[in-house]
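REVIEWER CHECKLIST
Item 1: Sequence provided? yes
Item 2: Single chain? yes
Item 3: Sequence as submitted:
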Amino acid sequence: MLLLFALIVRAVSLEFYGKVNNSSWRVLWGMAFGLGSLIPAVLYGVAVGNVLRGVPIDAEGVLYVPFLSLLNPFALLCGVLSLVLIVMQGAAYMTVKTEGDLQKRMEWWVDNAWDRVCFALRGRDGLSLFCFSISF
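Item 4: Structure as written out by the authors:
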C-alpha cells in the first residue's frame, strides 16, 4: 500500500506542480515528487532483500508477516543499494544526453554512486575487487 500511495503522490505532484504560481506551492509538490520517487526505489530493494533473505510462507502459500518485520537491516541495505543504483543509472543516462557543466555534474554523480555501491558490496566474497576492476 505504501508503494501504491507513493506512486499516486508522484503522479499527482506532476499534475499539481504547475497549477499555482507560488514558490511554497512548487516546493510542496516538488518535495512530494521527490518522496514519491524515493520511496518506490527503496521499497523495490527492500522487497528483493526480503526475497533473498527468505520470507516465511505457510503450506498454502500465504505470507503472514507484519510490515515492520520486513524492514530488517539486510532488506534496508538492499533498499539503499537499489536507490544508489537507480541514481547511478539516471546520472549515466543524463551523462550521455547532456553536454557542458551538467554533463560534468552527472559524471561526478555516476562516479560517487559507483563508489557507494562498491562500499556496500564490499565484504568476504570479494565483490569489492570486482567493483574496482571495472570502475571508470
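Item 5: Key structural point noted by reviewer: The radius of gyration is 19 Å.
Item 6: Recommendation: ____
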